[in-house]
Structure formats: structure tokens, C-alpha cells
């Protein structure tokens, strides 16, 4: 293989047949299905580029590595591996393996970089970069699939809210933090009044739309730290961090009014419905999610018996 830069080929290495030996090695490197290049570690001048590299990045004559191998660069790459290839005495440390996405062709490469002495004694970076784009694509597809699986495992498919499992996991975590810090916690339980009547009268598809509309309405009315979940059927629950009974009851009342004003579009006229709410709160060191949910459920049952479309609150049991 011919090298376009005259000074890239050693004319006199002090070894018999040095130039011919160099050309033989270059021929071998040209046969590799991977990028192989050499760049001066001080000037960044490209001293050697194999055939694979030329076919992808073009002629390397009078080019610096960051000019040839990357796009829209005005100086050495911020991810340049040179500092990792030398020890504190400026001596080579061995091979550094890393991955990067090339900005010229958008493909992923696994790079094996090493500082070596060039034929004239200067330190150069030798890089062998293998295309791993297909492997990265498969890895990314796997990660996306795992992410979707985790989301499906924790998300209610109909409403997009936390499902029962995720609600209890996140709720327990929030309660543990509250116990450590001594903060108060509150729980709101709610469900749609006469939901069976909606399904029986208008069909389950309309009932599903009512559940979706309720979820979409509640979600933006709560804080980011609050935990909203669908526990099953038409039953929903909210964990309110750092919230006492009074503020939690006020929040429930605000939610009740918003639900009452909702309308689900349906011919010949929109469907309207209400919801009942139960609230419980506590601040003891032994705060317990299950206990407060039980208290809130009792309050919800009380709201149902009192005529529905209302908020009822009860204090935690004395041993809470």
C-alpha cells in the first residue's frame, strides 16, 4: 500500500529493510475490516490511515485527527483519549478501550487506543476502531424493551397512572422517608359514584373513557411528589407527602368540585358523574400506609352512606 505522506514511511529506521517491513505491516492493516490510524499525540497530525479509514473518511494528507475523523470540530475533541494513554511520567500506560458515536457517519465504534513510539521516536496514538453499530442497535432495542416492560409492570394500562403494585411500592418509600424526617402524611381514597350505572347504561367503553377522563383531570392538580394510583375498578388513591389532615381535606374538596364539573363527550349528550372522597392523615413515628389507607377507606364509606359526592375525613386510630 502506498502512503500519501512522504514522511509517514520511514526511510531509514536503522534496521535493515525497515521501509519494506513498514509497507508489509501497512498491507496487513489495510486488510482489516476496522479503522486503524496513527496520530501524533502533540500535534494531532494523522501519520497513517488504513484503507478502511480512507474509504470512510477520505484522504488524510495534511489533516489533523479531529479534522479528519469528526465533523464541525474547531479543536481537539473533548473526549480525546490522549490523557488516558500516558502516566504521570509521560510513558505509555497500555490499551484504553471505549465506545463512541462518530459525528461524520453517525455509526458506533469500539475503540482500542494505545500510546506507542513511532519509527522516529515520537509518541503517537494508535487507534483500532471496530464498527459496533448493529450491536448498539440491539442493546438499545433491548433497553427500550426492558423500559417498556418496567413501565407496563408499574402502569395501569387504561389510565396511565401507577397501578396498585407501583402505588404501594412508591407509597411505602414515601412513608419511610416521612418516618425518618418526622413529617406528616395524608392519604385520599376516592371512587366514582354509581359507576356500575354508567357501565350498564352507556356500555363499558364509555365507562373506560370516564376512568381515563378522571385520571387526566386529577393528575395535573397534584404535586409532582404526590403519588396517584388506580387501585382497581373505579377506585383511586393519593398519597400526599408532608401534608396534614386539614390541607389534605381541602385538596380532596378541590378535587371533588373539579370532578363534579367534568363531562365525558357522548351522544346524544355528555356524561357527567361525581366522586366520593375519604381522607386520613397522621404524623407519628410509626406512620403506616396500610393503616392510613384503612382510615381513608372508612371515611370514603362514610361519604357514600351520607349521600355521595362529598368528602369525609377521620383522624388516624389512637395507636397510629
UniProtKB/TrEMBL annotation:
Reactions this protein catalyses: 2 GTP = 3',3'-c-di-GMP + 2 diphosphate
CDD domains: GGDEF (cd01949)
Keywords: Nucleotidyltransferase, Transferase
EC number(s) per entry: 2.7.7.65
Database matches in PROSITE patterns: GGDEF
Any one GO molecular-function label of the UniProt entry: diguanylate cyclase activity
GGDEF domain: residues covered: 183-316
Keyword Nucleotidyltransferase applies: yes
Record's protein name: diguanylate cyclase
Gene source species: Azotobacter bryophylli
Amino acid at each position: 500500500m502506498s502512503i500519501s505522506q512522504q514522511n509517514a514511511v520511514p526511510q531509514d529506521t536503522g534496521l535493515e529493510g525497515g521501509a519494506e517491513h513498514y509497507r508489509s505491516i501497512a498491507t496487513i492493516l489495510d486488510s482489516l475490516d476496522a479503522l486503524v490510524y496513527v496520530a501524533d499525540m502533540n500535534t494531532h497530525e494523522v501519520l497513517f490511515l488504513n484503507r478502511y479509514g480512507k474509504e470512510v473518511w477520505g484522504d488524510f494528507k495534511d489533516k489533523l485527527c479531529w479534522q479528519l475523523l469528526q465533523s464541525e470540530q474547531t479543536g481537539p475533541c473533548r473526549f480525546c483519549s490522549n490523557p488516558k494513554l500516558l502516566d504521570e511520567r509521560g510513558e505509555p500506560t497500555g490499551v484504553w478501550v471505549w465506545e463512541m458515536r462518530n459525528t461524520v457517519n453517525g455509526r458506533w465504534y469500539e475503540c482500542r487506543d494505545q500510546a506507542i513510539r513511532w519509527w522516529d521516536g515520537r509518541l503517537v496514538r494508535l487507534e483500532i476502531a471496530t464498527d459496533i453499530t448493529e450491536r448498539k442497535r440491539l442493546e438499545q432495542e433491548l433497553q427500550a424493551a426492558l423500559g417498556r416492560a418496567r413501565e407496563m409492570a408499574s402502569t395501569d394500562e387504561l389510565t396511565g397512572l401507577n397501578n396498585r403494585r407501583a402505588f404501594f411500592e412508591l407509597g411505602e418509600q414515601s412513608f419511610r422517608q416521612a418516618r425518618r424526617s418526622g413529617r406528616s402524611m395524608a392519604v385520599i381514597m376516592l371512587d366514582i359514584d354509581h359507576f356500575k350505572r354508567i357501565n350498564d347504561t352507556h356500555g363499558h367503553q364509555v365507562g373506560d373513557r370516564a376512568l381515563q377522563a378522571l385520571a387526566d383531570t386529577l393528575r395535573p392538580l397534584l404535586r409532582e411528589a404526590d403519588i396517584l394510583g388506580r387501585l382497581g375498578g373505579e377506585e383511586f388513591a393519593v398519597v400526599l407527602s408532608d401534608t396534614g389532615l386539614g390541607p389534605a381535606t381541602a385538596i380532596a374538596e378541590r378535587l371533588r368540585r373539579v370532578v363534579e364539573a367534568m363531562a365525558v363527550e357522548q351522544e346524544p349528550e355528555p356524561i357527567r358523574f361525581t366522586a366520593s372522597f375519604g381522607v386520613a392523615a397522621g404524623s407519628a413515628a410509626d406512620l403506616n400506609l396500610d393503616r392510613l389507607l384503612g382510615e381513608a377507606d372508612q371515611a370514603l364509606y362514610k361519604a357514600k352512606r351520607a349521600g355521595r359526592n362529598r368528602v369525609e375525613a377521620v383522624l388516624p386510630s389512637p395507636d397510629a
